[in-house]
Every structure is written in structure tokens, then in C-alpha cells.
Specification:
The protein has about 260 residues and is α/β, with parallel strands linked by helices. It is built from 8 helices and 7 strands, in the order βαβαβαβαβαβαααβ. The chain has a 7-stranded parallel beta sheet, sandwiched between helices. GO terms for molecular function: oxidoreductase activity.
């Protein structure tokens, strides 16, 4: 999964949204590098499939609604009782509400905000004491959409921008306490969430036109960057966003002539 090896032996890593896509690739990468991994998600069967064949002493699957504060508290207590602590949090769970703002229903807004903003807030708040105790770190799976605007994604972009604001502020507050917080920012990546778009060659071509490396991202492109930021090699990196986007954000947005 990773070309380089990272020493996560004996470390405990929490990956939200760990059953599919970028979360699943990240789970596998941490397992390959020696970590114990806690996976959360809403679909228990996907979590169990993700760790099929893995030593059960090294994994814990917990069905969790990331937007429910009480469930996040239960999750953290479960991690503490099982592994005794927590070294890395990968905040990967995300919701999406497409369409221009006038077409986004109150229910859709509530869902995406509850996952991306409330859920991230609760996760950070609940895990910081454990990360402070372990001198650990958090990596947010963000997006290029957290750094600029997109057509037809106002609700999603707003919530992703909010995540980065929270992350940077907490990085300032907790740096003196030995806790690092960083983010990776993918562009269009082939996952279950984007499967419908990926099936339309015209849509894929429109995304790839902005990618100088000439192809969409894959989950396996993102996971190694997460491991780097979580590792001791990034010990002096905090409050930053690492674009893992094939060069998307290098463009001004003007057409490719």
C-alpha cells in the first residue's frame, strides 16, 4: 500500500468512514505498517469486510453515526477500554449535498452539516484528551473544495471550509500541548461516493482536464499522504493542508488551451 515504511507498531489509529474508499485504503495502509486500527461507519457489514482475515486483536469495528455526540463519546470510551489509548485520528467520514443552493432542501443541508461540521467538531472534542495523553495527531481527509468554490456544491463546500477553519484553530491551541492536526485535500477521486460520476466518461474528462497528471485520483493515492502526516517524519508539520490532487490546485482555473 505504501512504498515507504512507517513505524506504527503498537500505535492505535481511528479511521472514521473506514469501510470504503479513501477510508478503507487508509485502514489497509495503517495495518500494513503495524498499527492497531479502529474503524467506524454506519454499515457494519462494510466494516467487517474491510478487516476480513486480519488478526482480530489488531482491529475493532464500531458502527457509529458520526453526527451523534453520544455515539462519539461511546466510541472513545470503547477505544480506551480495548486498546488503552489513541495515537492517531483520521477524520474521513463525509457527507455530500449536490446542487445549487436554491435546490438544497433543509433535510439535505441538515444531513451534510451534521456529518461534516457537527460530526467533525464532536470527534475532535472527544479525542483530543487521548491525543494529548499520547502526544498523537489528527489527519482530516479534506478536499480541494474546502479551499475554493465549485459550481453546484455550495452546501458541501461551505461545510468543508468550516472543517479547515476548525482544524487550523485547534492546531494553534494544541500545538503547545504536543498535538498536531493536519489535512490532506484530494480532488476528484474514484470511490463509492463518486461511482455515478465516474461511470460518465464526459464527466470524468471534465475533471481530468484540470488534472495535470492526466487521471482521476484513486484511494491508494491518498492513503500514503495520510500516513506521512500521521508519522514521525511530519513531526514539525501542523495546521497545514497537503493537496493530493494530481495538480488540480496548481491551476488558476482558466481553460486548458
Amino acid at each position: 500500500m505504501t512504498h515507504n515504511s512507517y513505524d506504527f507498531a503498537g500505535k492505535t489509529v481511528l479511521v472514521t468512514g473506514g469501510g470504503t474508499g479513501i477510508g478503507l485504503a487508509t485502514v489497509r495502509a495503517f495495518l500494513d505498517n503495524g498499527a492497531n486500527v479502529v474503524l467506524t461507519g454506519r454499515r457494519k457489514e462494510k466494516l467487517e469486510e474491510a478487516v476480513d482475515g486480519v488478526d482480530p486483536a489488531r482491529v475493532l469495528t464500531v458502527s457509529t453515526d458520526i453526527g451523534d455526540r453520544a455515539q462519539i463519546g461511546d466510541l472513545v470510551r470503547h477505544i480506551s477500554s480495548t486498546f488503552g489509548g489513541l495515537d492517531v485520528v483520521v477524520a474521513n467520514a463525509s457527507g455530500f449535498a449536490p446542487g445549487p443552493i436554491t435546490d438544497v432542501s433543509s433535510e439535505d443541508w441538515e444531513t451534510v452539516r451534521r456529518t461534516n461540521v457537527d460530526g467533525f467538531f464532536h470527534l475532535v472534542q472527544a479525542t483530543l484528551p487521548l491525543l494529548e495523553a499520547s502526544q498523537g495527531n489528527l489527519v482530516l481527509v479534506s478536499s480541494v473544495s474546502a479551499q475554493a468554490g465549485d459550481w453546484g456544491q455550495s452546501a458541501y463546500n461551505a461545510t468543508k471550509h468550516a472543517q479547515l477553519g476548525l482544524l487550523r484553530s485547534v492546531a494553534l491551541d494544541y500545538g503547545p500541548k504536543g498535538v498536531r492536526l493536519n489535512a490532506v485535500a484530494p480532488a476528484f477521486t474514484i470511490t463509492d461516493l463518486t461511482a455515478d460520476m465516474a461511470a460518465d466518461s464526459d464527466v470524468v474528462d471534465s475533471f481530468v482536464d484540470r488534472v495535470t497528471l492526466g487521471r482521476p485520483g484513486q484511494p491508494e493515492d491518498i492513503a500514503p499522504a495520510v500516513l506521512f502526516l500521521a508519522s514521525a517524519d511530519a513531526a514539525y508539520v501542523t495546521g497545514t493542508v497537503l493537496n493530493v490532487d494530481g495538480g488540480t490546485m496548481a491551476s488558476t482555473g482558466q481553460p486548458h488551451l
